[in-house]
Design brief:
alpha/beta; five-stranded parallel beta sheet; globular; 10 helices; Rossmann fold; single chain
Length: 202
């Protein structure tokens, strides 16, 4: 089973590439989706977040107010570290469970979608690393348009992640997403063909 790490800084278009790879047959594990699962109402992680950050990060119905939490930790390095200490172990457990499920199903290529792959994990645990990248100005524009962020909020979100240039040098494949959707799909298809070859499928 070929373990692929897919990453990309916020606004680069990683989620679009993940959907393409899933459509072409990859078994995908989305770390963001698992992080949302980890903080569902009743989950221990949500209780730990409330204890650390207060009820101000919860919606009236008791669910996590992700926007409020993001504002709390955006400029607070210690707060981000505390949040990661709460959520990351749960996500790691859920990831292991999903990967075991993939193995039982006979999956040949498993793509792990991990936004903070280089920051939070050991890249060497993956057989191949795929980075989706786009210029910071374009990513900022996308964040403002798709998420309704202010320019300052988008800048803060971009600045909270390690620069993509370092990640480019450490990745096996780089998919630049600075053109049309068709161009992105062509480049992603090329990478998928390479992954198939590495997995011994073609």
């Amino acid at each position: 089973m070929l373990r692929v790490g897919l990453t990309g800084n916020v606004g680069a278009g990683k989620s679009t590439v993940l959907e393409l790879l899933r459509g072409w047959g990859a078994w995908t594990i989305d770390a963001d989706a698992l992080a949302r699962e980890a903080v569902l109402p009743g989950a221990p992680a949500l209780g730990a977040i409330e204890a650390r950050f207060g009820r101000g990060v919860l919606q009236p119905d008791g669910t996590l107010d992700r926007a409020a939490l993001r504002r709390r930790v955006m400029s607070d390095a210690k707060g981000r570290e505390a949040l990661n200490d709460i959520v990351h172990p749960v996500v790691a457990r859920l990831t292991f469970e999903r990967e075991q499920e993939a193995a039982r199903a006979g999956a040949r290529i498993v793509v792990h979608d991990v936004p903070l792959l280089f920051e939070a994990l050991d890249p060497d645990t993956f057989d191949a690393l795929v980075l989706v990248d786009a210029p910071p100005a374009l990513r900022k524009e996308r964040l403002m348009n798709s998420r309704g962020l202010s320019a300052a909020e988008a800048d803060d979100l971009i600045a909270a992640q390690a620069p993509a240039q370092d990640k480019r040098a450490r990745s096996h494949f780089v998919i630049d997403n600075d053109d049309s959707r068709d161009a992105l799909e062509r480049r992603a298809r090329e990478v998928w063909s390479e992954l198939l070859a590495r997995a011994g499928i073609v």
